[in-house]
TrEMBL record:
Residues 3-58 form the HTH deoR-type domain. One of its GO terms (molecular function) is DNA binding. This is DeoR/GlpR family DNA-binding transcription regulator. It comes from the Bacteria. It comes from Nonomuraea recticatena. The keyword tRNA-binding does not apply.
Length: 255
C-alpha cells in the first residue's frame, strides 16, 4: 500500500474511532508496528491527530481556530510594536536569546541590532530571514526540524535535539494565550511539544502577550504559569490579570 494512501486510511480510522491503538492499526493496515508508529509521529507533527502512549486520538474539531499569519500580523499591531521594543531592552549584551515564531516576537527584529554581541536562536524561518535581510552583524542559529508550511516554523524531534547543544539565557515566547491561574496556552497540538522543549532550554522565560491574549481560551497548555519569569504586555491589559501575575512573583512590564 502506498504510504499516502495508508496514512489517509489511518487518519480516517482514527477520526471514526476517536482513539485507537498501534496494534489495531497495524492489523487493519497490514503493516508493521514500527511503520504505524512512524506514520503516527509524522501525522502528529502535521497536526492531523494527537499521538498518545500506545496509539493516537482524534483532534477535537472544536479546538480553537488559529488565525492566519497575516491576520495575526496586523491585529493589535501598535501594541505589539511597543511590547517588542520594550522586550528588547531586557536583553543583556553578549547573551544568547531564543525567539519563538509569532507576530509579536517578529516585531523585535528591527530593534535587535541595538544590543551588541548577541546570538539569536529561533525555530522560525520567517524571523531568521528577516534578520538575515536587515542585519549584517547579528549571529543567528536556526533550529532544524519539520517545516510547518503556513507558519514557516520548524517542529519536532530534530528541533528539540538541537536545543540540547545550545545554552540559552533568555527565551521570548509569543503566546497564543495566557491564563494567570493556569499557564501559557497554545492553539496547535503539533507545536506544543516543541514549544515546551524550547521553554525548558532557557534560563529565563519572557512571554510577550498583548491585552487580547488574556481573553484567549484553549485546552492546550504549553507550560504552567510557574515557568514564566516575565510578562511584557500593553497598557490595556486588565488590572486583575496584571495583579494575578504579580501575586505569583512574575515581573509584569506594560508598554
Amino acid at each position: 500500500m502506498l504510504s499516502e494512501k495508508r496514512r489517509n486510511q489511518l487518519l480516517e480510522y482514527v477520526r471514526h474511532r476517536r482513539s485507537v491503538g498501534v496494534e489495531d492499526l497495524a492489523e487493519l493496515l497490514g503493516v508493521s508496528l514500527s511503520t504505524v508508529r512512524r506514520d503516527l509521529d509524522e501525522m502528529d507533527e502535521r497536526g492531523l491527530l494527537r499521538r498518545v502512549h500506545g496509539g493516537a486520538v482524534a483532534i477535537d474539531d472544536h479546538a480553537p481556530r488559529e488565525n492566519s499569519v497575516d491576520e495575526r500580523a496586523v491585529r493589535n499591531l501598535e501594541e505589539k510594536k511597543r511590547i517588542a521594543a520594550r522586550a528588547v531592552e531586557l536583553i543583556t549584551p553578549g547573551s544568547t536569546i531564543l525567539l519563538t515564531g509569532g507576530s509579536t516576537t517578529a516585531q523585535m527584529v528591527p530593534h535587535l541590532s541595538a544590543v551588541p554581541d548577541i546570538t539569536v536562536v529561533t525555530n522560525s524561518v520567517a524571523i531568521a530571514h528577516a534578520i538575515g535581510t536587515t542585519s549584517e552583524t547579528l549571529q543567528v542559529l536556526v533550529l532544524g526540524g519539520l517545516l510547518r508550511n503556513l507558519e514557516l516554523s520548524l517542529l519536532g524531534h530534530l528541533t528539540s535535539q538541537a536545543l540540547a547543544d545550545i545554552h540559552i539565557d533568555l527565551a521570548f515566547f509569543s503566546a497564543y494565550g495566557i491564563d494567570p491561574g493556569y499557564g501559557i496556552l497554545g492553539a496547535n497540538l503539533a507545536e506544543a511539544e516543541t514549544d515546551r522543549n524550547m521553554i525548558k532550554a532557557a534560563r529565563h522565560l519572557t512571554v510577550l502577550a498583548d491585552h487580547s491574549k488574556f481573553n484567549q481560551r484553549s485546552a492546550v497548555r504549553i507550560a504552567p504559569i510557574s515557568a514564566v519569569g516575565t510578562v511584557v504586555t500593553d497598557n490595556r491589559a486588565s488590572d486583575e490579570a496584571v495583579a494575578a501575575l504579580r501575586a505569583r512573583d512574575i515581573t509584569v512590564i506594560q508598554a
